[in-house]
């Protein structure tokens, strides 16, 4: 190789992780190439990527105390998201709503289904969460420690918001409906099912 | 008279205005069967109230009412609606309905599950119509002599109270 490339210098760098060599990189340097500290760091980075790829995504040099993002955990996360998505799809189908949003209590999206429009924006989610926070305090003053709901009724669109496991909010945006009470019941039922995935949702936020 | 008196200022209420608003709210409460009704301005200041005493500081309650409605209104603007109302269900037995009353006020009604929401809304809309009529009269009509006298008496009482304190 050196003869083919006609390079005078050849360097072989061992790839070492956790005290064990797992390979080597051979460099054929051009004439007069100034090998510097930055090149060493670049080689270390390449070595880290190769080690991680060879060890199923385990981060090279990660601290022992840190929670490893194992493939099992990722699989559980994926399964939870699929279950949550299925519940939201069912709710969207049953209620014929324009959109169904699952938010955390700060107004960040966990998942959403339905039309991509103003209701799927971050601004809308923030307003929903802030309004719900104010009404939660209000309900608390009137002696309710139970789950409470808020129905915002407009000229055309209505927004129904319910708590999920005291940490998340489920919002359904629907137009005039023949049986709004049914929408509220279906949404409450979906919130109950989502609450059962509460732990997984919390872990999902950690991930 | 409540707050600083400036003719045409929507935040100023004279004794007659407050009396009329209380009459409207009292009648609404008797007819609808609700527990409490509050008339709050958009900034969260209490204008008039009837019914049960608030379970917490009135300022806190009215501020939360205003906050809930401000969020509703922001949603309405995003969704292209002009009118919006909020219905808060507190557990299984209590509800709070918040409706817009004119351009600068909100009507908040606390009631139990025994009261039909649709019936309560009908009575509330009727009460809001009367409340708006009081607001319009207040902004348009000239103050009568009795209220001017009340205002002068209030000013003199404040002057004498300040004199007592500062000499």
Main attributes of the structure:
heterodimer, A: 207 residues, alpha+beta, Beta-Lactamase, 2 domains, two-stranded antiparallel ribbon, 44% helix, 26% strand, elongated, B: 167 residues, five-stranded antiparallel sheet, 21% strand
Topology (SSEs and partners):
The complex is a heterodimer of chains A (about 210) and B (about 170).
Chain A (H helix, E strand, L loop, with lengths): L1 H4 L3 E9 L2 E10 L7 H18 L16 H25 L3 E6 L4 E6 L7 H20 L6 E7 L2 E8 L3 E8 L4 H16 L2 H9 L1
Antiparallel strand pairs in A: 1-2, 3-4, 3-7, 5-6, 6-7
Helix pairs in contact in A: 3-5, 3-6
Chain B lengths: L14 H18 L3 E6 L4 E6 L6 H22 L4 E7 L3 E8 L3 E8 L4 H24 L4 H22 L1
Antiparallel strand pairs in B: 1-2, 1-5, 3-4, 4-5
Number of helices of chain B: 4
CATH architecture of chain B: 2-Layer Sandwich
The CATH class label of chain B is Alpha Beta
Biggest sheet, spatial arrangement of strands of chain A = 4-3-7-6-5
Q: Characterize the biggest β-sheet of chain A.
A: 5 strands, antiparallel
Give a verbal description of the structure:
The complex is a heterodimer of chains A (207) and B (167). In chain A, a hairpin with a 2-residue loop joins strand 1 (9-17) and strand 2. Chain A folds into two domains: 2-54, no CATH class; 71-206, Dynein light chain 2a, cytoplasmic (Beta-Lactamase, 2-Layer Sandwich). Chain A is α+β, with helices and mostly antiparallel strands. In chain A, helix 3 (71-95) packs antiparallel against helix 5 (180-195) and helix 3 packs across helix 6 (198-206). Mean pLDDT of chain A is 78; it is low at 57-66. In chain A, 44% of the residues lie in helices and 26% in strands. Chain A is built from six helices and seven strands, in the order H-E-E-H-H-E-E-H-E-E-E-H-H. Chain A has helices at 2-5, 37-54, 71-95, 122-141, 180-195, 198-206; strands at residues 9-17, 20-29, 99-104, 109-114, 148-154, 157-164, 168-175. In chain A, the strands form two sheets. Chain A has a five-stranded antiparallel β-sheet with strand order 4-3-7-6-5, sandwiched between helices. Chain B has a five-stranded antiparallel β-sheet, sandwiched between helices. Chain B has helices spanning 15-32, 58-79, 117-140, 145-166, and strands spanning 36-41, 46-51, 84-90, 94-101, 105-112. Chain B is built from four helices and five strands. The model of chain B is unreliable at 1-7 and 148-152 (pLDDT under 50). With 167 residues, chain B is an alpha+beta fold. Chain B has one domain: Beta-Lactamase. The chains are: A alpha+beta (207), B alpha+beta (167). Strand 5 (148-154) of chain A pairs antiparallel with strand 3 of chain B.
